[in-house]
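User: quick one, fold this
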Amino acid sequence: MTEKALFDIVHLRTVLETATGPGSKWNARSLSLAASAGKSPHLVRDIIRGKSANPQLETVLGLAKALEMDIAQLVPSTATLMPRVGMTGGVEQLEVVGAVAAGVWREQTDWAAEDRYSIEVGPNPVAGGERFALRMEGHSMDKIIPPGSDLECLRVSYGFVEPQPGDIVIVQRDRHDLHELTCKRLDHDGTNFILRAESTRAEFQEPIVIGNPDEDNHDDEGVNIIGIVLRSHQNLFQRRR
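Assistant:
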């Protein structure tokens, strides 16, 4: 019996063919090595040629990181997510509990129960990892994540799930009794972590330097990376709140 693919493999092949085409930064081998930490030099070639018709979720996450793309660009929210061998569960429901602003620090407030809603998500890429979902507001990441998208996030747990440069992250700033959130691309300049926008608007281009937040940074003015964005899910209708 043929196992059903977790991803829209035709779309994924098209993206990889474009990314490794003439004049591109990557060829199939170099992208394969970057996406697999040097372990699988033929990974991209096998997907494009149809030898790998059902790649692991970890493979797609690696490709997204190497290409500096949101995973939703490789695996559109319209793709059917099916259970597969070696992964626990299939389609799951994840509750959207609040909003995060892209571009500014926004006060963190969980929505009332009647304002929350659920989205369908695929299997958890990290066994035992905790996921949560937030609604994106604002335009500082609008090159890759449209405002109004629902963000499926993996909660950071230092020593288990840690953010890396290139990740899109949810960042919390604690100021006395005020808790604020924002969403940005994480970068590192060799000394400090930096939050960068990916926006069509000039007002969001100034980077935010956040030092080196970790699990021990919980002072009164602390900044902590609390989540890594796995996927964005676009809504097809406007919810009234």
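User: anything notable?
Assistant: Confidence is low (pLDDT under 50) at residues 1-6, 77-88, 236-241.
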